[in-house]
Amino acid sequence: MSLIELENVTFRYSGATRTVLEDVSLxxxxxxxxxxxxxxxxxxxxxxxxxxxxxxxxxxxxxxRVDGMDTQAQKIAEISRKVGVVLQDPENQLFNLTVEADxxxxxxxxxxxxxxxxxxxxxxxxxxxxxEFRRRMSHELSGGQKQRVAIASVxxxxxxxxxxxxxxxxxxxxxxxxxxxxxxxxxxxxxxxxIVENDPEHLAPLADxxxxxxxxxxxxxxxxxxxxxKIKGDRRIRFPQVTELYFQLEDxxxxxxxxxLTLEEGVELFSRV
Length: 273
Known about the structure:
Helix 5 (114-127) crosses helix 6 and helix 6 (143-155) packs parallel to helix 7. This protein has helices spanning 41-48, 51-54, 76-79, 99-109, 114-127, 143-155, 173-188, 200-206, 224-230, 241-249, 263-271, and strands at residues 4-13, 21-28, 33-38, 58-66, 69-70, 83-86, 161-165, 192-196, 209-214, 217-222. By secondary structure, the chain is of the alpha/beta class.
C-alpha cells in the first residue's frame, strides 16, 4: 500500500457551481517528493491533511488514505499526527514570542514528555539550520528564517508526510534559497513531501514526480523529464529556463533525448553540440 492514496476524489466548495477536483486518483510512495501544478492544486493538499472534508464545507466523494488512515473516518487531530502542513505565510503558523516556543507549541498540545520534547526541538532546529536562533524573538527573524521555523515546528511533530502550499510565495530570493536548502536536506533524509510551488528551477531537480491538474482532472503524472516532455508547448506552466531552451532547439540540433533540468546539465549538453 502506498503512503498516500487518493481514489476517485471529487470536491465542490459550498456555493460553487463547478467541481474543483474531479475523479482524481493518485498515489505517493514513502520518501517521494511530489510537486503539484494546475487548477485545484491547493484543494488537493487540503484533502491530504483532512481540512477537506472536516473543516472546509463542500460536497466530497471518493477516498483519501494517508499511512493507511481514511481521512473521512478520522478526526483531524489524528490526521495531523501523520500530516504536517506548511502554509504560504509563516506568520500564520508562528504564535509565540520565541523560536523555541513556536517549535514546541504543537508538542505541548500532544503532551510530549519534556525529555522527548527537548530531543525533537534540537533535532528540528538543526535540520533547518536554526539552532543558534533558538531563543531569538520570532518577530526579529527574516521571512526565510520564519518559514524555516514553521517547517521545524512541523518536523518536531514527527509527521510522516509534509504538505506545503507555496511556502516561498511571500519570500525574497534569499529566503527562497534558504527554504529549498531545507527541502533538499529533508529529501535526503527520506521525508515524504507533497508541495505546491511555482519555482521550476528549484523544484525540477528535487522532484521524484510531478502532477498536473486541468479543470480539476488529472492530466499528467510523471518524473520531471518525462513530465516536461509530455506538456511541452503548454505555456500555462513554467519550465526551467534550460528545459525551455532544449525544447526550442531539439528539432534544429541533435541534442539527444535526455531533457536537461539544471543549468549544469544544460551546459554539459550544449557544449557537446
